[in-house]
């Protein structure tokens, strides 16, 4: 409730139109098909503590949202900066003129990861909003994630696209892009 207005106010207060920043909206999830949506951060924290909500994908893909630093978010009252880490894929609000998603990554896999990586390469600040949140509701697996899980060919194609993406980052950003390749190889 009130996220739209909060985002608009944050965009103004943080002068987003004049700076390169991505505003991170922390993501949570429920395993229940019915949920009384929390009306405030305090209600969300209570639900989190009671176990009816969880940090997003903590049980299947913690690397995707761990850099959000949920422990810090619990008590944050002002936006805080986080650093890029491998496989980080937060939900963000950015200016219209930011880099677009790489169209190679359609279906399941690496669309948000590659986008955040490119934002970081262009030196965008990654700012977590202290009073914003979203909740993912359970649903059946998508056709594309099923293909990813079942097809060696699909996973192989995705790996090839990831390698091409890294090469493109290296061409565009030079030595600054080496950290992405190094991070990928150490995984």
TrEMBL record:
Some GO term, biological process aspect, for this entry: which one?
protein O-linked glycosylation via mannose
Q: Where in the cell is it found?
A: Membrane
- One Pfam family here: Glyco_transf_49
The way this protein sits in the membrane is described as:
Single-pass type II membrane protein
On the tree of life, the source organism's domain of life is Eukaryota
- Write the record's keywords in alphabetical order, separated by commas: Glycoprotein, Glycosyltransferase, Membrane, Metal-binding, Signal-anchor, Transferase, Transmembrane, Transmembrane helix
Coiled coil (residue ranges) = none
Q: Name one GO cellular component term.
A: Golgi apparatus
Q: Extract the InterPro entries matched here.
A: Xyl/GlcA_transferase
One GO molecular function term of this record is:
xylosyltransferase activity
This protein is called: LARG2 glucuronyltransferase
Q: Which organism is it from?
A: Sakesphorus luctuosus
Q: Which gene encodes it?
A: Large2
